[in-house]
Amino acid sequence: MREIEGEVRRDRRARLVARGGPDEYADQETFAIVERVLRRAVEDRNPDLLLLQELLGDEERWQPQLHLRFSSHHPLIGAPLLFVKRRLLLPVLRWLYEYSLENFRRQQRLNRVLLACIEDLAIENARLRREFDSLIGRGR
């Protein structure tokens, strides 16, 4: 199984390099490390348990909004205006919404994977920083 995975990795790396991917991918070890970080973000991380999401705060402010809300602040014509919005505009907007919904879901998944990648890279950076600091401390 490892042999097959290695062959798939080599083919993927060769395709990326042939298409003009980063020069660093010519090195098998570098490619394997990058692939491991990205794979962990895609497969192993729980996208709902990320520090970055906690730091961003209220999820409604940065997540794509997938619901329709109609309201009116006009006291006299508010009710008829809402009626028109719900009966005329809602069917058109619902069609557009359903048409776009899958793209919103894809974008949301990509956003979560990218957040997981950023967090994994931050963790790796922190680990390397601690290692570096301890090596510098020993050299003194």
Structural notes for this entry:
The structure is a single chain. This protein has 140 residues and is mainly α. The chain contains five helices and no strands. The chain is elongated. It has one domain.
Helix proportion range: over 70%
**N-to-C span:** 47 Å
Principal-axes geometry comes out as elongated
Q: How many domains make up the coordinates?
A: 1
Provide the β-strand percentage band: under 5%
Number of strands: 0
Mean of all residue-level pLDDT scores: 82
Sheet of most strands: none
Based on helices, strands and strand pairing, what is the structural class? mainly alpha
Task: Output the helix-strand order.
Answer: HHHHH
Give the number of helices.
5
Gyration radius (Cα, Å) is: 24 Å
Low-confidence stretches: none
What is the secondary structure topology, with strand pairs?
Blueprint: H1 2-18, H2 28-44, H3 51-56, H4 59-62, H5 78-139
Helix pairs in contact: 2-5
Offer a quick outline of the entry.
By secondary structure, the chain is mainly α. The chain has helices at 2-18, 28-44, 51-56, 59-62, 78-139.
Can you give keywords for this protein?
5 helices; single chain; mainly alpha
